[in-house]
TrEMBL record:
Residues 32-352 form the Enoyl-CoA hydratase/isomerase domain. It catalyses: 3-hydroxy-2-methylpropanoyl-CoA + H2O = 3-hydroxy-2-methylpropanoate + CoA + H(+). The keyword Amino-acid biosynthesis does not apply. It comes from Streptomyces luomodiensis. This is 3-hydroxyisobutyryl-CoA hydrolase. Pfam families: ECH_2 (PF16113). Keywords: Hydrolase. Its EC number is 3.1.2.4.
Amino acid sequence: MTDPVTDPATDAVTVPVTDDDAVLARTEGRAGYLTLNRPRALNALTHPMVTRIADYLAAWERDPAVRTVVIDGAGERGLCAGGDIRMIHQDVTSGGGAASRAFWRDEYVLNARIARYPKPYVALMDGIVMGGGVGVSAHGSVRIVTERSRVAMPETTIGFVPDVGGTHLLSRAPGELGTHLALTGASVGAADALRCGLADHVVPSSLLPALARDLAAEPVADVLPRYAVEAPTGTLDGHREWIDHCYAADTVEEIVDRLMAVGEPAAKETAETLLAKSPTALKVTLEAVRRARALGSLERVLAQEYRVSCAALSGPDFVEGIRAQVIDKDRSPRWSPADLAEVTDAEVARFFAPLRDGELRIADAS
């Protein structure tokens, strides 16, 4: 444990979370427990955290005493808000992005490991679960949401594109619901998370500690029925008609035109939301989701996402989006290009071009 630190501005005494503290791991009975432990940063993932999770999963996979893995987040706000984009901003602006590329490589390999893990992997998706938080949870075999869950892939808001296997998950959602969530970055609650294939069960948040405790003694199949409840009514199905119609268009420009013309207030609001996003990120995201549908396996989609993520490092919008939303917090990004019409097909294609300095290669388990 590190020494306490006193904040000179407030006299508050805190204990910094080190790399070793940022993922807490323990075993009890038949279960291995992982807790993301950066609550002040909403458990945002760092490269050492990814490595630590992967190491424990590898060890527990070989340990016959560990029959189930459970992952949750420390604090009251949620499982994980995503990758630590402040660190990515610093890396890109001062280090050229090498550390970010290394982080993503290991993170995406971890996402694939979680999806193919041979033991039950129980993700407690309470509270905020976004970006990288989706990557360490929604690929698991047992995905539990609560009445507090807000699940999202909000990357277009910061000039980025859904990753960590997000385009794979969203491409498989019913109709065009996944396209809608990918482009808007909108968050969904428990019912809609189940509807879109991002979760499997609903458990009241107050019961999660007892559920996790019981998994130390009993199999998941015996424990879940005691805690799972019927999912509440979602909201997305009520908008399916205009969502499926509008997002079936071939281009982002046509999607926006259809949203404006369909005559639904919610559709018009959605069009206005899209027009505030990075035009480049929107066009690349649409292409990424459409390609993910054809690619099929998670491993192939992750390889595509790695290309896209690395390409984003050399464009202006990702750094600008982080600046506007997280660094300066002025919420006024200056996108370049600023208009959808100015984003060329060649620029979109650049994001999917083969990498010269090392593709991501994961054995395809499909």
